[in-house]
Please model this.
Amino acid sequence: IAKEVGISRVHLYRKMKELTNQTPHAFIRNIRLKQAAHLLATSNRNVTEVMYVCGFPNATSFSTIFKNFYGVSPREYMQTHRK
Model:
């Protein structure tokens, strides 16, 4: 990302932290988690499909990260929020 916008990695890290109070990694992860939650609630995709669409490489890490962020597993979230 830093290369694309023409700044150093250190400068990108500092600016992201200053503007969002998150590291670039956490910022991107949180966007992916929000997208995953949206898809779990509104689409007909299963947890594995949502995991891959949102860029998470394996189910264990996705479930752990999702549960830490939302307080429930992806499956529980899907069951309570799907319309």
Observations:
- The chain has a mean pLDDT of 94.
- The helical segments are 2-5, 9-20, 24-42, 47-53, 59-70, 74-81.
